[in-house]
Known about the structure:
Layout lengths: L1 H12 L6 E6 L8 E6 L1 H7 L3 H11 L10 H32 L7 H11 L15 H11 L2 H11 L9 H16 L3 E13 L7 E4 L2 E2 L6 E3 L4 E9 L5 H9 L8 E5 L6 H10 L4 E5 L14 E3 L32 E4 L2 H8 L29 E6 L2 E14 L4 E11 L7 H23 L7 E8 L7 H9 L1 H7 E6 L4 E2 L4 E6 L4 H8 L12 H5 L4 H5 L10 H5 L5 E7 L17 H7 L4 H21 L8 H23 L10 H22 L6 H12 L1 H4 L24 H10 L6 H26 L10
Parallel strand pairs: 6-10, 7-8, 8-9, 9-11, 14-15, 14-16, 16-19, 17-19
Antiparallel strand pairs: 1-2, 3-13, 4-5, 4-12, 7-12, 13-15, 18-19
Helix pairs in contact: 1-4, 6-20, 7-12, 7-20, 12-20, 15-20, 21-22, 21-25, 22-26, 25-26
Amino acid sequence: MDQARTTISKIFNGEPRSYTRFSLTQNMEGGDSQVEMKLAPEVEEEVGTNGVGEHLNHQSQSPYRRKPSRTPKNIFYLIAVTLLIFIIGYLIGYLVHRKQDKSSPTCDQTDDQAVAGRVADDEDSSWTGSYTPQLDWSDVKKLFGDKLTVSQIEASLREFASNDHRAGSPGDEDLANKVLQRFRENNLKTWDDKHYVTLQVPPTSASNSLTFRGQNLGPLQGYLAYSASGSAEGSVLYAYYGRVEDFEDLEDNGVGVSGRIVLVRAGGRISFAEKVANAANMNASAVLIYPDPADYAFSEGTHLFGHVHLGSGDPYTPGFPSFNHTQFPPARSSGLPNIIAQTITASMAKSIMGKMGGRTAPRSWIDGGLSGVLYKLGEDSDTATVQVNNALANTRIHNVFGVIKGVTDPDRYVVIGAQRDAWGPGFAKSTVGTALLVELAKTISYMVREGRFVPRRSFVFASWTAGEYGNIGATEWLESYLPSLSMKAYSYISLDGVVAGTTETFKASASPLMNGLILDTMKEVYTVHDPRKTIFAQVGEPKWEGVVLEDMDMSNPAYPFTTFSGIPSVSFRFSAGQAKGVYPFYNTLLDTRENLNSATYGNVAKVARAAGQVAGHMALRLVHDHLIRLSVEQYDQIIRKRVIQINGKVNVLLQNGRLPANFTPQWLISAMGSYGRGARSIYSAIENSDLEDTEHCRLLNDRLMRVEANLLSPYVSPIDSPFRHILLGSGQHTLSALVENLDALKSTSEPGDVDRLLNQFAQATWTIQSCANALAGEVWDMDNNI
């Protein structure tokens, strides 16, 4: 090539010349472009810096030029080199064109399809196929509705129905393998997650027992996991639902609780664990829980099952995962009760309360359904003895997962999960959710595999176990991968208990970030009894939040995702016809297909399809849109409401001299304003953004998805206070606790109380301010005007 180059130079210039290198420098100030010409080193050395212009001028102005020599030999070399260059160029062009035909998108395809082609060629990809241009949302909805059918859901309901699938049992393992197989059949990438957890199971030898006034009331088949073991003796006290306000009513009426066995009704919109914790705080010796006929429409001999761990996950590895072959120091969750707790039947409660003396219960407490019972509070002679012999068992549990990978941001994913275990048949509690989980995975996989739908982000389908013991399977997974999940999982949709009646009543519990998505979904999914009417039209209320939304309590399967991991989550249900809107057969052995058929008027599969559409629409929307649909302005309203409430209480205490004169809530008020400005700033950025800019959308999405996690208090330990969310969690770091402490200061103003309050204000202020800073964007955009 050197010889050819020399020859060409001779032909055109008559002699070889030194090559000249050109460096073009654009004038970025807006002036004309300038050209810097840099000669070869040997030329620079010969002419020097000042000689370059003179040399070039001399060459351009000289009237004399040496004519190039055109000999036959040189002409031959010229032809040969030209032909060689032509052949090389042709081969390069052919190869490039062929590669483009194979993998490049056409002009009608988006960037997503270009990436889709590359993902489809990846050996780890869970789907392949040819890709059409991205569907708009209306087409996605129609395709999904066509593929999610009642007949397929019915088949899955039959496949996953089981009478024995307690956590860690052979029946539970069998269902896990079925789910895993179904995921694989539908081309999902699968894996599992095993943990060794401590469950508390019914006694294997001696049984739990209860005597009242020396009479044995029979074997106790139901039980409450994580009760304290041993025996307790004392007089029985009726305490209605065992809520905080119920114990306050007893105190106001001069009725002591300390040392007594408290008898409470199940229900009351609080969990078994909360009832036991409330009684323990009043120094009760034991708690008996029964289903009153006024609340539960089943026979008086029905036994209840549940747990009393005021927390989530394995209570013997609080805050960290329970993996096998890993040694942990002895640990115990602060949410484990130190008193005995046991369920009894309504007939047993009737035997006790029919013989109890003492004063009559408050008027609002005598609405029970036990026939022939006067509902008295009890007296000292109403003594009972409770014996609990539950046993701890180290049990292997098995979570199962499948993934459908996204295209643009495959490392960002929405998680859809369902509990697999149950105390008995658990048809409404777990079978419906498991069947829907598999059918959603199948339907969405088909949409992607056939090339009709290109998800920007990924789907993770999760089948949990040990949910009946306090969301253990899901929580252990969260604890195992918390740093990764808090950065990549941007939402969780629970399928637990989604069908508890017809579609007449729709209820949802969610992170406020999900409220806008819930509203949009309600406007798109139709009811079963009237296919022309959407769920939103069924609600028929302009202020739908008050009709549909419920507080997310600790027993909710979505609770640990939001309050422990900072992942926006949602759970929902259809229900109608039950007392107080609660499906009566949860936590019993009567949660069967037959009873759910009765609650849905024989339309279980049809209502399940409507529930599948709700979950599917939310999940598809979260992966379809350029920007993740999270409503950050909702927290602005909640924070503002809380801070205004706190400010009012502070002003009252200042006026009463209960707080130092220099105390001010101004810092917290300023943090509230910063969050509002941060929310407005991201919406302004969205309005002024090019949504086809993939990288810019990713940056905006990262800001949106971190809001929930940034509301977790960094000032408390996840072991001591696992639910660190300052608005939705529990503990002294929350704004609710701050309000309670302000109320407590009305009666006392000890220096220690004031100091604790000041720390609460500082921690709440900087948690909200840090969230506002992250929402605003980069460091130079942050607002720290406090």
